[in-house]
Amino acid sequence: MLDDRTTAATWPAAYPQGYAVVDVETTGLARDDRIVSAAVYRLDAQGNVEDHWYTLVNPERDPGPVWIHGLTSDVLEGAPLFPEIAEEFSARLEGRVLVAHNAMFDWQMIAREYARAEGAAPVRQRLCTIALSKELSLPLPNHKLESLAAHFGVVQQRAHNALDDARVLAEAFRPSLHAAAERNVRLPLLECRPLTEWAPAPERPRIGYQASYRGNTWRPSRKRPPCPYPNPGRYESDKPLKQGMRVAFSGDTSIDRELLEDRATEAGLHVASSVSRLTSLLVTNDPDSATGKTLKAKSYGTPVVDEAAFTQLLRDVAPADE
Predict the structure, then answer these.
(1) Does the model's pTM come out above 0.70?
(2) Residue 142 pLDDT greater than 90, yes or no
(3) Range of the domain at 308
(4) 282 Cβ contact list (under 8 Å, min separation 6)
């Protein structure tokens, strides 16, 4: 049922007709890591649960941080391979907006699995609940799922279990969606682009064999030209950006990431794929996340700004030193 304050008659006509709330657990955070479990809660247009689905996935490699997701090699050895569950997964996603907490990560992991299987996920748009909570100005201490859940009184039972995390997110997404509908907030929907440039590496051993894992190699869709300006050093909060500064990005963004990087390149900035001591600035909407880039930025003392501040800074980039 709809909230009393938000009726079908007042529901924004432009909102999607259905959602797939997704959570995947993985062997790690890198581009060659694999999915070990996946869960989908299908919701109708107003966020009501229609059904849910969960599966383990044999990653064909070491399961990674067992202490986080709890899935050992023994448990995963008999699980289906991703190509064996791809059709069912697609049926759960078809015609719906993919919803996840840090949606870019879940989408990229899913898209890469489909690319390895020589297919594509039937998803056209995604919605990040971190971005939505910011649009709603929710008074959260940070952007962790547990904080969003606590705000709406949703009880977590098994953190980092894909099925329970998807349930928690579905229960927290519904009131968020109704709050957005009540205020006619534009949902932060982003395009999901299939990955088509996956280059398979030699055959890898299945779980249970002792061998080194090199994984598949990921090639970016296009190579950016080198920045013609020298690096002037770190960004200082009371000064403008300067051409040649090395800028890295982490996490989901409301503007398509590739477009944001294009704008930075056009302004004369060096778009870096990683964070080092030479990085001038890290752009992230979730500075409290434990990604490799944010952790390195903290250890190096690299300045951090969010996407909104960065787009403002892009309007007035100082010329490089002659």
Answers:
(1) no
(2) no
(3) 219-322
(4) 247, 248, 249, 250, 275, 293, 294, 297, 302, 303, 304, 305
